[in-house]
Amino acid sequence: MRVRPFEDIVTEYGPMVLRVCRAVLGPADAEDAWSETFLSAMRAYPGLDPHANVEAWLVTIAHRRAIDVGRTLTRAPAPVERLPDAGRSDSYDPDLWAALGTLPDKQRRTLAYRYLAGLPYAEIAGLLGGTTEAARRAAADGLKTLRTTYLEEAL
User: Fold this and answer.
1) Which residue from 142, 32, 152, 30 is spatially nearest to 95, judged by alpha carbons?
2) Which domains are assigned to the chain?
3) How many other CB atoms are there within 10 angstroms of residue 19's CB atom?
4) For the RNA polymerase sigma-70 region domain, which residue ranges apply (predicted)?
5) Other C-beta atoms within 10 Å of 60: how many?
6) Which residues contact 124 (CB under 8 A, 6 or more apart)?
7) What angle is formed at CA 41 by the lines to CA 75 and CA 126, rounded to 5 degrees?
8) How far apart, in whole angstroms, are the C-alpha atoms of residue 116 and residue 20?
9) What whole-number percentage of the chain has pLDDT above 70?
10) Phi, psi of 147 (to 5 degrees)
11) Using CA atoms, how far apart are residues 94 and 72, in angstroms rounded to an integer?
12) How far apart are CA 61 and CA 58, in angstroms?
């Protein structure tokens, strides 16, 4: 089987990885995690099994890089209250991010991996620890909260 050029992988999966990083870390730190994800992936790509699920592989790397970025942030000086708008070209919704930010970490990550990356609950459970049923419950609880907070505000 012929290996796809890495540039094609970035083009195809880059937007999905960025959405996942934003949902997990927030808009200000997502680009760092995205860059770190693809730097790590580029180094490991030559040894990747040609039959591997590239999307799940990238989400796993993004998950680990998001943890690394999160750890770095906890050791960094306190950020300014508000960053200037960087002129986003995608469908970034600050109200949705604010609603996601109120969710517990596991619910927010589960929703990101399920609905932005399209991972099955079994893979999410492997990433976050726990059972498939716990991942389903976290997603259901997170959606229920979003329906009562974010969707009511949007009406």
Assistant:
1) 152
2) 1-81 (1.10.1740.10), 93-154 (1.10.10.10)
3) 20
4) 10-71
5) 19
6) 110, 113, 114, 135, 139
7) 75
8) 6
9) 86
10) -65, -30
11) 23
12) 5
- What is the separation of C-alpha 113 from the centre of its chain, rounded to a whole number of angstroms? 6
> Are the beta carbons of 3 and 50 closer than 8 angstroms?
yes
30: left (phi over 0), alpha (psi -120 to 50) or beta: alpha
Provide the residue count of the chain: 155
| Rounded-to-integer distance, Cα 7 and Cα 120, Å | 26
Token digits for 64? 């680990």
Structure tokens at 83: 């960053």
Q: pLDDT tens-digit profile of 17-44?
A: 999 899 888 888 889 899 999 999 999 9
